[in-house]
Request: fold
Amino acid sequence: MRRLDRLATHSDDPDRLTRTYLGAAQKKAHEDVLGWMREAGMTARLDAVGNVVGRYEGAQPGAPALLLGSHLDTVRDAGRYDGMLGVIAGIECVEALGRAGKRLPFAVEVIGFADEEGVRFPVNFIGSRAVIGTLDGAALAAKDAAGTSMAEALRAAGFDPARVGQAARKPSEVLAYVELHIEQGPVLEAGGLALGVVDAIAGSTRLSVELTGEAGHAGTVPMKARRDALATAAECVLAVERRASAPGLVGTVGRIECLPGAINVIPGKVRFSVDLRSGDDGLRKAAIADVEREFAAIAARRKVGLAISTIHDGKACACSPWLMERIGRAIESQGQKRFDLPSGAGHDGMTMIGLCDIGMMFVRCKHGVSHNPAEAMTMDDAEIATRALLRLIEEFEPGSRRT
Ligand code: GLV
Ligand code: MN
Ligand code: MN
Reply:
């Protein structure tokens, strides 16, 4: 918990926790994590996109690894547990193995992904995409709000964008990916449970929408003659809310930018994001199609230009039953009841499933609050979660890969 507090001091913003991909704050956080990994007896390095990778060899050097981890980037004005908990707990477990002089029949690696949230670039899961080898040229060309491309940002941080392929891992090198994460929802707390087994992660689509109206004088252009991009966006936002209120869906417009952004100028251009999720891919796709149709109708009626690009489209993904079984047993070993629940939040496992089987353990967080500085969990829950994770590692036997 002290380490999590310490990581929370590394922020791009002075008065709130915001740590985005390849920023100065991330460099400091990575230095801390590399140091803690080495203290725990791991070899530790940054890979070609800046993921922190620590490795604790098994009895035979070079054996395939059980991958543990989570992400070290944050949203804007974040809490201190989303992501970081899974990395720090993994290091604690390895430290315990090292203290006991235990070597296992497999290696244990802890990965701190450099970007999961997708806050800086219109690309998410940058770290895990690189690890499964799908970070492509389009992603490297994506630009942040300051107009810096990911390739330029990599170069500025001392990485070579031509070499991001070197972060990719082979399926034969890994046994499974297991992530410990705060629940970010209220279910475990309401059930009086410290821990849960994730059965599936909801799929999500992210859109970037641009509306082009006409800027003009706020005092002279009659209301009927206006092509106001922000008023158009307002209708679009409400259309998302309405459509996503159907059962099984959630939808959010979390970012909106209005240009030129002056009190006395009719908004000429607006850009906004849409994040729409469901455990059911069919429901999500139908809702996205409806939302896009409705945006087109709203924009046409207001004579405003509309451009939509899909910046992420990730299927719902199932955790492997054999890993769920082992995570369930590890939870029971701590005197807790096994309870299975889905994740509405996205996680690196959604990408890592392209490489290996995935499993997740959730730990209760206070009032289910997350993506908020009020995110909180107890020391007792951190301890029980870490002990359960350690048990999982100690008793881990590879299962059969899903077909
Ligand atoms: C990450 O936290 C996400 O679910 O967007
Ligand atoms: Mn998050
Ligand atoms: Mn997270």
Summary: The first helix runs from residue 2 to 7. Residues 117, 345-346 surround glyoxylic acid (ligand 1) (CB under 6 Å). Residues 197 and 340 are 5 Å apart (CA to CA).
